[in-house]
Specification:
3 strands
């Protein structure tokens, strides 16, 4: 067994309600790319009704 300990991070991406879906997608993609450069790996995404997407990451 490995003794590796994970670090976890939750990020809320505040997308614009009046932006196009393409612009919101680009915003989320840009944020994910920056986090990946820092070594974070996306685990899952939650998008509550009426809320902003929440990204759950680990490294």
């Amino acid at each position: 067994m490995s003794d590796r300990k994970w670090q976890h991070k939750v990020v809320t991406v505040k997308v614009g309600a009046f932006k196009s879906q393409e612009k919101n997608d680009a915003l989320i993609q840009e944020r994910l790319n920056r986090l990946a450069v820092e070594g974070w790996e996306l685990v899952t995404v939650a998008h509550p009704y009426g809320g902003h997407p929440r990204l759950y990451l680990r490294k």
